[in-house]
Design goal:
- Helix content is 40%, strand content 27%.
- It has a single domain (8-92), classed as Arc Repressor Mutant, subunit A (Orthogonal Bundle), CATH 1.10.10.
- It has helices at residues 39-47, 54-64, 69-85; strands at residues 8-11, 15-20, 23-28, 34-36, 52-53, 89-92.
- It is globular and about 35 Å long.
- It is of the alpha+beta class and 93 residues long.
- A hairpin with a 5-residue loop joins β3 and β4.
- The model has no long low-confidence stretch (mean pLDDT 94).
- 23% of the residues are buried.
- The chain has a 3-stranded antiparallel beta sheet with strand order 5-1-6. A 3-stranded antiparallel beta sheet has the order 2-3-4, covered by helices on one side.
- α2 packs across α3 (69-85).
- The longest helix has 17 residues, at 69-85.
- The protein has 3 helices and 6 strands, in the order ββββαβααβ.
- The protein starts with 7 loop residues before the first strand and ends with a strand.
């Protein structure tokens, strides 16, 4: 699935996650693999507890981190695509 600015992202109901020292560990219930998220990934993970537009996530990250809008957008879309491929998020248009 192609993710873009207008996509709405939410954590998959098929995963289990927990916060360990401000970083999330996510268990993919489909394949039994654990994924560790760094600080930025954990921030994004926390933002998508509820359905959120990619554009809104991008805007929040640009305010919080020293990154250009274009770089943030590219990195975010790449990260979200990886989460989608691993069935950790749901994407809605």
């Amino acid at each position: 699935m192609l993710i873009n600015d207008s996509s709405i992202i939410v954590q998959s109901q098929e995963q289990i996650s927990c916060n360990l020292d401000n970083e999330f560990v996510v268990l993919n219930s489909h394949n039994g693999i654990y994924y560790g998220l760094d600080q930025t990934g954990s921030t994004i993970w926390d933002l998508i507890k509820h359905p959120t537009k990619v554009k809104d996530i991008t805007n929040l990250l640009v305010k919080e981190y020293d990154v250009t809008l274009e770089q943030c957008k590219n990195d975010l879309l790449s990260f979200l695509q990886e989460l989608c491929e691993n069935k950790l998020i749901e994407v809605k248009e």
